[in-house]
Amino acid sequence: MFKGRFAVATTLTGNGISLSDLAGRMEHEYRLTSKNGIIRLLKTSVAETIPQPTAPVSDALDSAGAVVGSIFGIKRNEIKSRENHVGKNTEAVIDFTYLIAEIGYDQIDITAVQGPDQTIHLREIAMTGRDVCATGSGQIDFVKGWSLPVEPLSVELQFGVKGKLTPLLTTTGLLSDRKDGKGYTMLNQTVHFGGTMQHLDDSQWHDLLAKAAAPKPEAKEKDGATTAGKK
Questions:
Q1: Is 95 part of a structural domain of the chain?
Q2: Does the global pTM surpass 0.85?
Q3: Is residue 179 situated within a structural domain?
Q4: In the chain, at which end, N or C, are there fewer CB atoms within 10 A of the end residue's CB?
Q5: Would 104 be classed as within a structural domain?
Q6: Is residue 144 one of the residues assigned to a domain?
Q7: How many domains does the chain divide into?
């Protein structure tokens, strides 16, 4: 999910009436920091949820997105404007998934606390990049006999975008009207990630984007229908 160099600092705290009692009450706080790396957490594909164009293509063509064309195995200018046209929201979401599949981050800060029960509480997760930010929290449940990469993971993240991603998502209904102090426009809901660190479950993220990419029914022309009725 992340590729970069991380600095780790740890603090141990606790109290007890004896050394053995103290050992059972220790709390470990880990602070992980990384700068200028790569994040692949948001990589997903919604292409399978979008109906493929079925009408024959021609040379009298309108253009959709380059990414759309690559998914359907046809050139950018080979999507017929009316019969094969992909809506703006669909094109925007597909282009978005292409752009955020692998992105650079400026900084990541994670504060994790592991108490006597061995559960790791991710008290603070913060990531900033040129066009994307994320904040949130979560935990990694302890399971006796299991290694850390396969223990159950649960994380809630709030994402924000700016730069070229903001106008791209404007037509998708994914953005709220809230901005943070750094100018990121926040998505209108938090996103849950589950599974494990080894096998991440990003189904909610995928489903959120798939719903936003779903073709929207064309609005009927009320004026035209009224005129036809009078005739």
A1: no
A2: no
A3: yes
A4: C
A5: yes
A6: yes
A7: 1
Structure tokens at 208: 């959120």
Q: Cβ–Cβ contacts within 10 Å for residue 100, how many?
A: 21
- The tokens describing 8, both together, are 């780790």
> Residue 125: which of 188, 40, 34 has the closest Cα?
34
CB contact set of 122 (below 8 Å; sequence gap of 6+): 110, 111, 112, 136, 137, 138, 139, 140, 155
Chain position carrying tokens 């919604």: 46
Tokens of 225: 């229908």
pLDDT per residue of the chain (231 residues) written in tens, 0 to 9? 888 999 999 998 877 777 776 666 788 999 999 999 999 999 998 877 776 654 443 333 343 344 444 444 433 333 333 344 668 888 899 999 999 999 999 999 999 999 888 999 999 999 999 999 999 999 999 999 999 999 999 999 999 999 999 998 998 999 999 999 999 999 999 999 999 999 999 999 999 999 998 877 654 444 444 444 544
Cα 174 to chain centroid, rounded: 11
CA distance 193 to 155: 5
Q: Residue 26 sits in which domain range?
A: 2-44+100-213
Answer for the pair 89, 69: CB distance below 8 angstroms, yes or no: no
